[in-house]
Design a protein that fits this description.
The complex is a heterodimer of chains A (323) and B (374).
Chain A (H helix, E strand, L loop, with lengths): L7 E6 L2 H17 L8 E3 L4 H6 L2 H12 L5 E6 L1 H6 L3 H5 L7 E4 L9 H13 L11 E4 L8 H14 L4 E5 L5 H4 L7 E4 L5 H11 L3 E2 L6 H14 L5 H16 L8 E5 L5 H13 L3 E2 L6 E4 L5 H17 L1
Parallel strand pairs in A: 1-2, 1-3, 3-4, 5-6, 5-7, 7-8, 9-10, 9-11
Chain B lengths: L3 E2 L6 H9 L5 E6 L2 H11 L4 E2 L4 H6 L2 H11 L5 E6 L1 H6 L3 H4 L5 E5 L7 H11 L11 E4 L8 H14 L4 E4 L14 E4 L10 E4 L4 H14 L6 H24 L4 E6 L1 H15 L2 E7 L10 E3 L3 H11 L3 E4 L1 H5 L5 E4 L17 H21 L1
Parallel strand pairs in B: 2-3, 2-4, 4-5, 6-7, 6-8, 8-9, 10-11, 10-13, 11-12, 13-14
Helix pairs in contact in B: 1-2, 1-7, 8-14, 9-10, 10-14
């Protein structure tokens, strides 16, 4: 998350290897999303003696050095070993630096799960945004930046919101500038990527009074419900938009009539229950014979954001059936 | 300064996993957090197990969790190896005593102990390797799952040794686990950065000169060996390399080059490019501590340093990992160093042996020509 805030640096406080893990994985997922550049991650490079004598001094020196670069803020992410040896990271970060230094509690397993780390980072970054006047735009909260189809999912959400006459205020956070973050409180509605982000939604509601919707639209009926929920939250009449979307869905399903009545079974790993439900719904609409038959084709129950997400999933089903 | 921007090389824990996970018949357990498990699992593409310790284990001890995982794996016919990561190392628990009821290889290789090569050597040192005079042939070493060329190197070395009628003993570290207890007295290398130190070293196989010298030594050691086919192939293929490189030089100036790799591969590529293309080796950015070299060489740990060196030396060709590719837009690039992200690699490619040199020169000439024409 923090590497998606432009013109900032993320310091990973721990041994170099922990930072390399992140650099390498972010680099890999970035390339898959056509981003050639490497995110700016700095390791405090703790050695065995630092582990024994404490890592606060290397952290302070690193912050002093990084603060002299052309950055507008520094995020400090702690690692497992740091909370184990008990460094006072918050204390070091509260020192006198020329740019804001924001500690984020992410101490590996001591910080909880991956989702906890995401939520902690978003809440810490949101804490830097000042109150501001409302606009007509909506905020997108917690896009899965490591997701292969993150941009396609955003474009689908953008399409649906545009049909409702709504603009995007801030993508919080996906290649977001510090200035855009300062407008976070201006959104009239927050749309969370997934329900795991509800603590972030609650925090933003408390801080800025912004209501939220707990998930991107998943599946066919889920997309129609989403349109209805956004329209109600923004006090719009969404009936026409929903009808047009329903027609689009019918048209798409007609295009896949050739796979009707095919025996199939869902490959449910690693899909989440919501994605499985969306896949079951699409299969039902196409009258696929779902079950463990001898000639059942395994189909991916892929996460399908919006109507076009379902369409991409159906293309993968057709490929699986024909392959 | 202690800090390092965008560190380029994995930690000792990953190195230990890269060594141990290469053996069939071994279950490797990463004793640490989910993050410590996840990275080597995705990098090495090998089955690993994890204890996934949480805050509870840090406070109350990790014995119960470790025994749960090791107990679940024991009795299934595989040797178990446990790699202790940073936090268990700091907690000060007596892991060896915890595991006394199990036949387990314990490797203390926390990330802060060093880089990937350090962990690889720690794991090798913990293995019950036995050299037996009765085992015929040579071991192959320098093989690490971390190295994208390791599978190709093993394939190539097996081919050349078979052509010379020299049996292959144990491959360190990509073999069946039980074979380490009957290793041969002699070893041939593929990548000096991961040398095993096991048996008498016959030499490396990076570059055609090394192939000739090493196989020449082995011809003296093994009475039944016939290295004539390997020498003949080396000469024939070198002629082909010389011909295509000469054709390149007929039209273009020799390339100026920056090489970012582990020292052994970096030195091989520098020698090869100088020998066949009269290349200007402007700098070697060694990932690990470099040995003596006639080239300008320095150890480089962060991508910022690489970017600065590319900017100051202004090379035509950059050799390295996808990190180097990212900071060298518009320049010819050849990837030999992990990670090689953003490209699909299915077939095993060697850097060692005769085919390794052919493959490397081919890669370099193609990228130079592609860049010139674009």
């Amino acid at each position: 998350m923090t590497t998606h805030v432009r013109d900032t640096a993320s310091v990973i406080h721990g041994p170099k290897g922990c930072c390399h893990h992140n650099v390498s994985l972010l680099h890999a997922t970035g390339l898959e999303n056509d981003r050639i550049s490497i995110p700016e991650l700095v390791s405090t490079g703790l050695s065995e003696s630092d582990i024994i004598f404490g890592g606060e001094e290397p952290l302070r020196k690193t912050l002093e050095s990084v603060a002299c670069r052309d950055v507008r803020a520094i995020y400090v992410l702690s690692t497992c070993i740091i909370d184990t040896i008990g460094d006072d990271v918050t204390g070091v970060c509260s020192g006198d630096y020329p740019v804001p230094v924001i500690p984020i509690p992410t101490a590996g397993f001591l910080g909880g799960t991956f989702q906890n780390g995401v939520n902690n980072a978003l809440i810490a970054i949101a804490g830097t945004a000042p109150p501001c006047g409302r606009t007509d735009g909506v905020n997108i909260i917690g896009e899965r930046n490591l997701e292969y189809e993150v941009e396609e999912n955003y474009r689908e959400l953008h399409r649906i919101l545009s049909n409702l006459g709504l603009a995007i205020n801030t993508r919080f956070v996906h290649a977001t500038s510090v200035d855009q973050i300062s407008l976070l409180g201006a959104g009239r509605l927050n749309i969370l990527r997934e329900p795991g982000l509800i603590p972030v939604g609650e925090y933003l509601k408390q801080r800025f009074g912004t209501p939220y919707i707990a998930s991107f639209p998943l599946g066919l009926s889920g997309t129609l419900s989403f349109i209805d929920a956004v329209a109600r939250a923004c006090e719009l009449n969404g009936r026409c938009v929903a009808e047009e979307e329903r027609s689009l869905q019918e048209e798409i399903l007609m295009g896949f009539s050739d796979i009707r009545d095919t025996p199939a079974i869902f490959d449910q790993t690693p899909a989440d229950p919501e994605s499985v439900r969306a896949a079951e719904e699409a299969a039902g609409r196409l009258r696929l014979k779902i079950g463990r038959f001898p000639d059942s084709t395994p189909l991916p129950a892929a996460p399908s954001v919006g109507t076009y997400g379902v369409k991409r999933m159906l293309h993968r089903w057709r490929r699986a059936i024909h392959a | 300064m202690p800090e390092c921007s965008n560190p380029l090389w994995p930690c000792a824990m990953t190195g230990a996993a890269a060594c141990l996970a290469g053996f069939e018949g071994m279950s490797v357990v990463i004793h640490g957090s989910s993050g410590c498990y996840y990275y080597p699992a995705t990098l090495l593409h090998a089955p690993l197990h994890g204890t996934f310790i949480l805050e509870h284990e840090v406070i109350f001890g990790s014995e119960e969790r470790l025994l749960e995982v090791v107990g679940g794996l024991s009795g299934k016919g595989k040797k178990i190896a446990v790699i202790a990561t940073c936090v268990p190392a700091v907690l000060g628990e007596d892991i060896r005593s915890m595991l006394e009821n199990y036949d387990v290889i314990l490797v203390d290789s926390p990330g802060f102990a060093g880089d990937v090569e350090t962990g690889y050597q720690k794991a090798l040192a913990a293995l019950p390797i036995r050299v037996t005079p009765d085992t015929p042939g040579v071991n192959i070493d320098g093989v690490s799952l971390f190295d994208p060329y390791s599978a190709g190197n093993v394939q190539e070395l097996r081919r050349l040794l078979q052509a010379s009628s020299i049996p292959v003993a144990t491959v360190f570290c990509q073999d069946r686990f039980e074979r380490i207890s009957a290793s041969a007295e002699y070893t041939v290398g593929t990548n000096g950065d991961f040398a095993s130190g096991i048996g008498e070293y016959c030499g490396g196989t990076l570059g055609l000169e090394e192939v000739r010298a090493t196989f020449g030594r082995m011809a003296n050691l093994f009475g039944d060996a016939d290295i004539t086919p390997v020498l003949a192939e080396t000469d024939a293929q070198e002629e082909r390399i010389v011909r295509v490189c000469d054709k390149y030089l007929q039209r273009y100036d020799p390339p100026s080059v920056i090489i970012a790799a582990g020292y052994a591969y970096a030195h091989f590529t520098a020698r090869t490019l100088e020998r066949y293309l009269d290349a200007d080796i402007r700098c070697i950015c060694s990932r690990n501590p470099p040995g003596e070299s006639r080239y300008a060489v320095e150890q480089v740990t962060g991508i910022g340093q690489v970017k600065d060196l590319v900017g100051s030396h202004d090379p035509d060709l950059v050799i390295g990992s996808s990190f180097e590719r990212a900071v060298s837009p518009g320049r010819a690039f050849a990837g030999i160093t992990p990670p090689l992200r953003g490209e699909i690699r299915l077939a095993p490619r060697p850097l060692a042996g005769i085919s390794g040199t052919l493959s490397f020169v081919e890669q370099v000439l193609n990228t130079l020509l592609d860049t010139r024409t674009s």
